[in-house]
Design a protein that fits this description.
Length: about 325
């Protein structure tokens, strides 16, 4: 199975440590991962791309993270690593150094805003059949069971509905008000990678279709009928899908760029390109206020770019990374 990263660097031996399925003070209730899921999600074009998992018990011990005092909010950024490992926590622009971690998670994240910093909570894919909500900065709140195979992406609309995409067969699953049991919808995709809502409640998601071709699909708000969206330019490899306040954006992992589209009917017209110079493989990107965060699976770090100006990184996160796949931002 093709994974949602295109990273094709040197292969590293897979070493699943016993702590990957263990517990911690911030772990969701059902956090067991298996090697098959990890390897499956990271098989790229028939090549196994994995990273050696460090002993999670050996992660640095960080001071307790304290949110804003006196009514002031504190902003946090999360770089989410390979399935079954951990998320690295930052508080940019105060610092680029890692200040904490959330163990037993991995993959992608989302939050309760279309772009910018989420309000008090965020979500991270937390297993081959679940996703967990956290209170900023790192307290687990609840876990939802996902019935589609190998959940890959997540997105929330302005009403609080949660959409999950699956790698196994391209299905999506929607949880009304992010609770209860989800509604599964089959899609034209063989594998779904990334998804995002626009400001009208339309859900856009991308992945690979027959023959490993990029395809963008829309579920219009209030409809149960999916429609394939034709982009006016060629997208080499699917990346993040996110509303930026004006456009629907798609990150191209091969081109190291983000495309800004206006969508009319079944056509997405390219309006602008944001270059992510110096990145190698931004698996997931997250647009905040004036910046975009990149989980760079190729450079093994997290990067910050100006948005929509793009160009070279204005900051690079430093800390513990293990094949970064996802990123999200939220404030207390």
């Amino acid at each position: 199975m093709t994974g949602f990263v295109k990273y094709t660097g040197a292969l590293v031996a897979l070493a699943i440590c016993s702590a990957c399925g263990g517990g911690s003070g911030v772990a969701p209730s059902n956090t067991a991962f298996n090697a098959g899921y990890t390897a499956e999600a990271l098989s790229v074009h028939g090549m196994l791309v994995t990273a050696a998992h460090p002993n999670l018990n050996a992660l640095p011990h960080y001071a307790t993270i304290i949110s804003g005092r006196g009514g002031k909010s504190t902003k946090f950024e999360y770089i989410i690593n390979v399935y079954g490992s951990y998320a690295s926590i930052f508080n940019y622009p105060k610092s680029t150094k890692q200040i904490g971690s959330i163990t037993n998670v991995g993959g992608q994240g989302c939050t309760n805003v279309l772009y910018g910093y989420g309000k008090k909570t965020f979500w991270i894919v937390a297993g081959p059949d679940q996703i967990t909500e956290y209170k900023v900065p790192q307290k687990p709140l609840k876990t939802l069971s996902v019935s589609i195979g190998n959940p890959s992406s997540c997105a929330m609309d302005t009403s609080g509905d949660l959409a999950i995409g699956g790698l196994s067969n391209g299905d999506i699953e929607i949880f009304k008000h992010a609770s209860g049991s989800g509604t599964v919808m089959a899609t034209p995709l063989n594998e779904e990678y990334f998804d995002g809502y626009d400001n009208k409640g339309n859900l856009f998601f991308d992945g690979l279709h027959n023959g490993d071709h990029f395809e963008l699909v829309e579920l219009p708000e209030g409809s149960s009928k999916l429609q394939v969206i034709t982009t006016s330019n060629a997208v080499e490899f699917p990346g993040s899908v996110q509303w930026d306040g004006k456009y629907v954006t798609v990150t191209d992992q091969d081109a190291n760029a983000m495309y800004q589209y206006t969508v009319s009917g079944t056509t997405a017209t390219l309006e602008g390109t944001v270059s992510l110079s110096g990145s190698t493989d931004c698996a997931q990107t997250w647009i905040a206020t004036g910046v975009v965060f990149c989980a760079d699976a190729g450079n093994q770090n997290g990067e910050v770019f100006k948005y929509p100006a793009g160009g070279s990184p204005i900051a690079i996160f430093t800390g513990m990374f293990d094949l970064p796949l996802g990123t999200v931002a939220a404030e207390s």
